[in-house]
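Researcher: Please translate sequence to C-alpha cells.
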Amino acid sequence: MAAMLLLSACQSTPPPLDPNGPLQIAYSETEFRRYERPGSATLTGQAFLHDQGDTVACTGQPVLLFPHTRSFERVVELARMKAHPAMPETTDPRFNTITRRATCDTEGNFTFKNLPRGRWYVLTHVRWSAGDAGMEGVDLIGEADTSAGPARVVLDDRNRI
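Model: Translation complete:
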C-alpha cells in the first residue's frame, strides 16, 4: 500500500526507477534534520472522493505527512506510477520523528499542528462500500507548503494514486 511505500526510502545517487524492485531510503540527517523538531505552522485539510454521485470522505482513516525531500520525491513518483515495489522488512525508527499523523473526522477534515515550516506530502485513504463487491478504497496523495505559515490542502479525485 502507498503508506508502506512512503515509509521506505532511497539511495544518495538514485538508480533508474524499478517499480517492482526493492526501495530503500537511507535516513539523511542533512535532508531530514529541519523536519525533526516541532514548529509553529498548522496544516488543515480535507480528503474525499466522488463515487456514483456521492461524496465519500476519508472518515476514520489515518493521514500521513512526510517531508517533501529528494528521497520522498522518488517514493511519491513510484506511487504515482501505481508501482508496488518490494518493501524492506524494517524501517529506520528515526523516520517516526519526521512523519506526522492525524485522523480524518466524519467530514474528511484533518489538522496537523506545531509543524516546522516547509514543504510536505500528504497521504490518506478513502474507503467505501461497493455493495456485493465489499469494500473498495483509493489512496490520495497531495502536496502542501507551510513555509509561509498556516496552509490548507484538499485531496480529491485529482489526487488518486
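Researcher: Any highlights?
Model: Residues 3-12, 85-89 have pLDDT under 50 and may be disordered.
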